[in-house]
Specification:
Blueprint (H helix, E strand, L loop, with lengths): L3 E5 L3 H13 L4 E5 L8 E2 L2 E5 L4 H6 L5 E3 L8 H13 L6 E2 L4 E2 L4 E2 L4 E2 L4 E2 L4 E2 L4 E2 L4 E2 L4 E2 L4 E2 L4 E2 L4 E2 L4 E2 L4 E2 L4 E2 L4 E2 L4 E2 L7 E3 L3 E2 L5 E2 L2
Parallel strand pairs: 1-2, 1-5, 2-4, 6-9, 7-10, 8-11, 9-12, 10-13, 11-14, 12-15, 13-16, 14-17, 15-18, 16-19, 17-20, 18-21, 19-22, 21-23, 22-24
Antiparallel strand pairs: 3-4, 23-25
The protein binds coenzyme A (COA).
Amino acid sequence: MEDKIVLVGGGGHCKSVLDCLWRQNPHAQPVIVDPILPVGSTVLGAKVAGGDDALPALFDAGYHQAFVTVGSILSSSTRRKIAGKLQDIGFSFPVIADPSAVISPFSVLGHGVFLGKNAIVNAEAVIGDHAIINSAAVIEHESRVGAFVHVSVGSILCGNVTVDDDAFIGAGAVVIQGIQIGKAAIVGAGCTVKKHIKENVMIRGLTVEEEASCPRY
Ligand SMILES: CC(C)(COP(=O)(O)OP(=O)(O)OC[C@H]1O[C@@H](n2cnc3c(N)ncnc32)[C@H](O)[C@@H]1OP(=O)(O)O)[C@@H](O)C(=O)NCCC(=O)NCCS
């Protein structure tokens, strides 16, 4: 990873990512791009350089790596838009992983993946581009996590689980082995999921045994 890096989005998720970045690379030189925060203000010691219109100038100034630090609760559409814009300018996307994360050498991580504190990615798991594997989330062996998925804090994907692109797995949820979670589905915090979940469906409740409970709003 290069030291210079642009983080896009200066809110709460940015603080989680930045804290891990400093721990991963104490020489990092991050700048924040955020349309709302005042230029020159700081987030955990990193300066705010401006809004999106600052991105091309930052690229020309030698910042060739970027990371999407807008969080995604429920929808990944903002993160997708930002990643597309960054890619068009030419930025590349490193993996940011807290040093406490455990990453199997037999796993595969895509571009721009975030692994928070104490996250675990076990053997032959595959993590798609720009996925968030948040603090203490566990991705067990041979599970496949799609692009722009958010696996929230403390949730567990047992072995051989598939989570399709853009889905959201809430905090503390448990997905039993072999289950498939469809594209852009939402699994509420604390659910135990025992049946496949179709795409674009939101589920909540302690134990989800039906294919789908409530339609997504
Ligand atoms: C599932 C979720 C998306 C539903 O949000 P929502 O549609 O706005 O739901 P509401 O808050 O309006 O609640 C509607 C009902 O569902 C219940 N409910 C909401 N979330 C629930 C959950 N996770 N488990 C069980 N019941 C839940 C509420 O108690 C409420 O019940 P009631 O109608 O009997 O009063 C949301 O509650 C959730 O779990 N979000 C994930 C948060 C999270 O994991 N954040 C982690 C960030 S790292």
